[in-house]
Design brief:
Elements: H1 3-16, H2 38-43, H3 47-52, E1 71-72, E2 78-83, E3 95-105, E4 111-117, E5 125-128, H4 136-142, E6 150-155, E7 176-186
Antiparallel strand pairs: 1-2, 2-6, 3-4, 3-5, 3-7, 6-7
């Protein structure tokens, strides 16, 4: 584990008090991000970095998606099917299993700070489509995927955490980018 990744792990443990939170699941880290954590982050020199999203070494390739491959829905969600699966189609009521990684979208539209991933824990995340237990951009973006498919979701803040943000992790009105792989579906 490199030093930048270790700093992120330490920061997340400090910020969440060692509790697990999953922003994509709608399990907000925000309640754990009280003012009492700010002095600890500041003492480690991590508060300004986390707040500004400037942590170097955890940024993606800074490549934006090809405009020709981007689909924009009426809600403003954009997605790119990086690989169309050949399995079952995900629909409301299905319990889906996904592997994902999420980034803050930079002003130029590219991937910035990686703030959440299921890949570090080694198992996919499960949720039921249509129950609104995840952010709205996930509800809309995962629905219609096929098992085995990989999709990049470009989620406007209104379909993510909006004006409230997610504590020091996702600031208010920030757009997000997620790479999502649909690994399984359990029908209801």
């Amino acid at each position: 584990m490199n030093s930048i990744r270790l700093a992120l792990v330490v920061m997340s443990l400090i910020v969440t008090g060692g509790r697990s939170c999953a922003p994509a699941l709608g399990r907000s880290c925000a309640p754990a991000l009280g003012r009492s954590r700010a002095p600890a982050l500041a003492a480690l020199g991590l508060l300004p970095i986390a707040a500004l999203g400037l942590l170097s070494g955890v940024h993606a390739d800074d490549q934006t998606a090809s405009p020709a491959a981007t689909v924009t829905t009426p809600s403003g969600l954009q997605y790119i099917d990086d690989a169309v699966g050949e399995g079952e189609l995900a629909k409301a009521g299905d319990t889906v299993s996904v592997q994902y990684t999420g980034w803050i979208q930079k002003a130029d539209g590219s991937k910035g700070l990686m703030f959440d991933t299921s890949r570090d824990i080694g198992r996919p995340m499960e949720f039921r489509l249509g129950r609104h237990k995840v952010i709205e951009g996930w509800e809309e973006g995962v629905s219609g995927m096929r098992v085995g498919g990989k999709r990049t979701l470009i989620i406007p803040s209104a379909l993510a955490y909006g004006k409230r943000g997610l504590g020091y992790i996702v600031l208010p009105n920030q757009n997000l980018i997620f790479e999502v792989e649909l690994v399984g579906i359990k029908a209801r």
